[in-house]
Design brief:
By secondary structure, the chain is mainly α. The chain has twelve helices and no strands. Helix 6 packs across helix 10. About 9% of the residues have low confidence.
Length: 317
């Protein structure tokens, strides 16, 4: 990495970090900030296991876990789990990513430490770490803006079934376009900081329910020429900081709002279930995309969105 490039990245990082700190301070002093609470309807163990399974299976497949975690329990008459419950059990998915990619993460950390000691800022590990770091900042900044601008997020039109359906259909079209136009040539050892920034910008779209964090980042990866399994693999690593921070913030909010031991147990059950199913989903998707295209997810997203719109029109959603 050239000196000018290092200076640019440091300037961008410092500027964005300043914005994050400023927004965080605004949140701390805001009069109308959403208080994360668990759903009013207490879930039982079976429901927690099912919701964890839904979260785990859909978090890393490009079909939107947020959409399914709202649509499935609503369809079953269990009620909307809400932002806090959803974000907390996503921590199980983070555990699955760390578990599955432990070798990659260890290599990146060791490589960054070595690069800093030897001042070898051109190393693959350093470029990836910078890319993941800078790629995480856009979604964190936009997430903070969202909390300020939409204080009652659970009950806003932003989380409506119509929004989820439309987002699912639009992202299906974009994923199909990326699959058709993408060259699918660049592999994991070709990744650099710019890829992280571009996919990180795409990741901000995941704040819209129904878009899918992995869907938006994999789509961006295909557009910039990444091989399919490489796009998925880097998407999972890129999501580590964002999902972890979101889950920890909501978990802290749950404790601040007051939580019963029984509710914590249900959260724990959902989180463990999420971790198990997330691991299985990651392993399957990486293997699947090594030989297959993403068209199955394109058609699934289209059908999912159309089904929801049909249910809304019939008054059943």
């Amino acid at each position: 990495m050239k000196r000018q490039e290092r200076s640019f990245y440091l300037w961008v990082s410092g500027t964005i970090l300043g914005l994050v700190l400023a927004l965080t301070a605004k949140l701390a002093n805001a009069d109308v900030v959403e208080t994360p609470v668990l759903p009013q309807t207490q879930y039982n163990i079976f429901q927690a296991v099912i919701l964890g399974m839904v979260q785990g299976l859909t978090e890393f497949l490009p079909i939107s876990s947020t959409a399914h975690l709202k649509a499935v329990p609503v369809a079953l008459g269990w009620g909307d789990p809400g932002v806090a419950f959803t974000a907390v059990i996503q921590l199980g998915s983070i555990g699955a990513v760390v578990w599955y990619f432990w070798a990659d993460l260890s290599q990146i950390v060791r490589g960054v430490v070595k690069a800093i000691n030897t001042k070898d800022y051109e190393s693959q590990e350093m470029r990836m770490a910078v890319g993941i770091g800078l790629g995480t900042l856009p979604i964190e900044i936009c997430g903070l803006f969202l909390k300020v601008l939409v204080p009652d997020l659970d009950n806003s039109a932003f989380r409506s079934m119509t929004t989820i359906a439309c987002a699912s259909i639009v992202m299906a079209i974009l994923l199909g376009w990326a699959e058709y136009k993408g060259r699918h040539l660049r592999h994991f050892n070709h990744l650099d900081a710019q890829d992280g920034i571009l996919m990180g910008l795409a990741q901000t779209l995941a704040l819209i329910p129904g878009v899918s964090r992995s869907g938006s980042t994999i789509t961006a990866g295909l557009f910039i020429g990444l091989e399919r399994s490489t796009a998925a693999r880097f998407s999972f690593l890129l999501g580590l900081p964002a999902i972890t921070l979101a889950g920890l913030v909501e978990l802290l909010g749950v404790f601040q709002a007051g939580v019963k031991t029984s509710e914590l147990f249900i959260l724990a059950v959902g989180t463990v279930s999420s971790a198990i199913w997330s691991y299985l989903a990651i392993a399957w998707l990486i293997k699947y995309l090594q030989k297959q295209s993403t068209w199955v997810f394109v058609w699934y997203r289209l059908a999912f969105g159309i089904l929801i719109l049909g249910a809304i029109r019939n008054g059943s959603a």
